[in-house]
Amino acid sequence: MRYHPLTILFRLWQFMKNHFVPGFVLFVIKGNSTFWLFEYGRYAFLFYASVHLIYIILNWFMTTYEFQDNQSFKLKKGIFVRQTSIIPFNRIQNVSQRTTLFHRIFGVTSLTFETAMDGVDDEIKFEVLTKKQASWLMDIVKRVEKNHTRLPETESKETIRIAEVHFSPSRRDLWKASFTSLSFLAVIPIAVSLYDKLEPFLPDPERYEGMFFQIINNIWLSIIIMIVAVCLFIVAGMFRTFVRYGKYEISSDDTHIYIKQGILNEVFFTIEKKKIQGLEMKQPLIKRLFGLAEVKLISSANSDFGDDSVQVNSLYPFLPMDQAVELIKKLLPSYSFDQEMVRLPKVSLLVKLLKPGWLWVIASLILYFFNPSIFDLHIPWWVWSVILLMIMMVNRFLDYYHTRYAISGDQVQWWHGGFTSRLFITRRKNVIEVGFTQSFLQRMFHLVSIQTKNRSTPVHIEGVADVPLSFARTFHQWYRERKKEVKVQ
């Protein structure tokens, strides 16, 4: 079977979006220019676009997929060099359904099956397909996961999923998210980036130099322009937040967790509960001030679309702390949040403060030799060095203050971090590797650093530093019990 014919139009649309700026410059802004760079650039652009269009059509024609033994996808692709890939259904970790503005116009959607396999063929992506086909494909995978090998008919009705909705943000939650995310500040780098791309092709700025100085010399006019600009940034940021999280919904049934988000670009994410490798709760400084946290589901597949969209395996990033804990209990009853965690001994603070800060040393050397005028402030280099040292020490003190750890049954959790603190929870069977390191300073005070690895793309590495040697021994003994839980195939 070949992909949906609209895949050709979708890929052409993606090409136009990615090459809009150079095309606009060559054919609109500099359309009448006789300079050789722009004149030959237009021919090169047209040639490149024509070749890419031919490639899109041939690639669609030569790429096929089929179901092999009702247990795996068989993909064939390649124009000059043919490549065949077989991906079993049981290797699929996550299912992501995304409906962009393009898909909404044509009444279609897209579907991505993310696997635990490494390499370029670690996912099966259907860029365009009907919603009925998407539901059918998801039903196939879900039935195989439940050991039902019978392939459903294409004409069968959509499987009804009885899922309980656990969270949907209110309007107040969205307002709070708009400010705590600082999304309105995202407009500034976007505008600066766009200006940098177009600056070489804009008219000579000296023509407008007089007007510019008239504006900045008029204090009231400058203040009004700044206020209007800030208001526009805030409105644009709030619109960005409402579009992204306006229809956010977290639900689950006995076996799966479902996350739905987006207004213009809809994303529907599915992950099987038993394939979750761990949980990560993150609190940057500004979220900690508002008592908010973000919970991320760690799985073996990579759920980042690589564009402006957030990772869909992340729960709502602005959950109140208590609500985040309750949500974890509802979604994953097998995981528990242990409130009574052990803090680091006071000697750990001494070790953290005495550790050499190589980044600070390098920054101080740069300040000493180059003596840059930062923000046009003529301040001696050693003052900036002292400020950096104070920031580093505060971050280390916060890391000591936040770091806690606990082992409960087959579950381990620790909370650590400075300005951004993180809580990590995982089960023993999901930890594929542990490591212990001990520096000379740690050896003097009988402290150890522990590192764990979980399956993810890339491998998820967590660790806690400067814990007592006694806990490291307990942790090692605890991990050795894993061989009783994991069966080697």
TrEMBL record:
Pfam families: bPH_2. The keyword rRNA processing does not apply. Residues 60-137, 248-329, 400-477 form the YdbS-like PH domain. Keywords: Membrane, Transmembrane, Transmembrane helix. The keyword Cytoplasm does not apply. The chain crosses the membrane at residues 44-67, 174-195, 215-239, 349-369, 381-398. InterPro entries: UCP026631, YdbS-like_PH. This is Putative membrane protein. The lineage of its organism: Bacteria, Bacillati, Bacillota, Bacilli, Bacillales.
